[in-house]
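input
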Amino acid sequence: MRARLADALADADVDATPETAVQTAAIGVAACAIVTVAVVPPLVVPAVVATALAGPVWLRVASARQERRFVLALPTALEQVASELRGGGSVASAVEHLAQSPSPVARDARRVHTRTTLGMGLADSLAVWSVEHDAAGVRAAAGALAVAATMGGRAADALDRLATSLRERLDAVAEANALSTQARLSAVVVGAAPLGYLVFASLVDARSVSALVGTGVGRVCLVAGSAFEALAALWMRRIVGSEPV
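output
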């Protein structure tokens, strides 16, 4: 579990150890429980559960955001490699320079460079990269860099054309996302409405919430409603979802 959490934090570009992240989450859950008991005691269990789930959800969102940055930066990284090849450099030196740069691609470049430093061939290291990071454009970039490693400067134009192709693909996906913005917003509003009403009802009439969480029938309704809400969220995501940038 510690290794998985460390990978999740690294994917989200969070500079924290797993122990620090768990401690922060525990403090947040405890604070939420104290505040909820003081304000709306019947909602303490749902509030604690929601707070506990907020951390993994935030990590997933941050990881997806970091992945988008990586995909957007990949064409620029290929152009930097092409520029270095034209200047007489090699793919290996270009990867080393990328590893030391602030680019979102730097983390992957450091892995490739570390493997080559430990004795693995550059082509094999790039092949491993395409397997361990299944992002849009990585497989094509890894293959192109492996070919460029044997061809040198003659492959610079091919890398530039690949970078242009990846940008055009990203533009097409961005346009598709823009066209589906209204549907996505509608899905968020429809999905959040029941939760918002529950919070509103707890502040206006605490007795209704007491009946919901304090009786057997109320608990059944709460669990069933939460399950249907989760299923509806997944279904709406499937309907309006498109390929991520």
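quick obs: The chain has a mean pLDDT of 83.
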